[in-house]
Amino acid sequence: MGKPKKRTSPRKTGTRRSHLALKLARAVNAKSPIKARTTTRETGKK
Asked: Can you give the chain as a three-state secondary structure string?
């Protein structure tokens, strides 16, 4: 799955957008038979 880009200036609140990737992954998991990895707690360790 594609990752959302980080903002160019580092180390500010809201620069890392992993929450967007999570939201997308959960949307995929709701519909698709192929499951995307969300969090370790949700998917279990590989």
From this structure: CCCCCCCCCCCCCCCCCHHHHHHHHHHHHHHCCCCCCCCHHHHCCC
